[in-house]
Amino acid sequence: GAVVSQHPSRVICKSGTSVKIECRSLDFQATTMFWYRQFPKQSLMLMATSNEGSKATYEQGVEKDKFLINHASLTLSTLTVTSAHPEDSSFYICSARFLVEYTDTQYFGPGTRLTVL
Amino acid sequence: LAKTTQPISMDSYEGQEVNITCSHNNIATNDYITWYQQFPSQGPRFIIQGYKTKVTNEVASLFIPADRKSSTLSLPRVSLSDTAVYYCLVGPNTGGFKTIFGAGTRLFVKA
């Protein structure tokens, strides 16, 4: 079964509004979660690494003030797209690494489709 | 971070075995090789992970030669539902290590 969930699965918003996406690890504690963005027909692009209890680490070119990440607990990380614009429309995917059967493996959420009008 | 190279796309027919090869010439000693499958509008799904030689699970096999500079994902008897993008990733499997995706291989299975 799924070990990482995301909410909402789909969101449509008006330009200028902020949107919050939740990522939860189910049955596991995740000290580190990752946020990716994927445009149509392209690969996943890492946006940031979310660390529980500390500031997120953003990849080069990703605006930290636009994409706010909060990792308040070992099972929840949130990504807030502030003042969203049409170019922020994308598929956002979170992931977390878990130790499963002695193997440290990265599992991904189902993704959130954001459409900014 | 070890860079990976995969074929952009592959075609196959139902029932055939499909082998997707990934090159990772600068793989490090503590790097593992992991393959993911992604369907449209879904998050990637873990398929298999290995370090050396051969790993097999219920869905696939992973072959890694002694020099570990490449790896081959083998999908036995593919079906239409195996049409997806397959990603090969290389890196240490430690908690904080970030995973960078390459372009992946688009597999199209035909009837």
Explain how this protein is built:
The complex is a heterodimer of chains A (117) and B (111). With 117 residues, chain A is an all-beta fold. Chain A contains no helices and 11 strands. Chain A has strands at residues 4-7, 10-13, 19-25, 32-38, 45-51, 57-58, 67-73, 76-81, 90-100, 103-108, 112-116. Helix content of chain B is 0%, strand content 47%. In chain B, the strands form 2 sheets. Chain B has a 5-stranded mixed beta sheet, with no helix packed on it. Chain B is mostly beta strands. Chain B contains no helices and 9 strands. The A-B interface holds A 4, 6, 31-32, 34, 36, 43-46, 49, 51, 91, 93, 95, 97, 103-111, 113 and B 34, 36, 41-46, 49, 87, 93-104.
Could you provide a short overview of the structure?
The complex is a heterodimer of chains A (117) and B (111). Chain A is mostly beta strands and 117 residues long.
Spell out the key features of this protein.
heterodimer, A: 117 residues, mainly beta, 7-stranded mixed beta sheet, 4-stranded antiparallel beta sheet, B: 111 residues, 5-stranded mixed beta sheet, globular
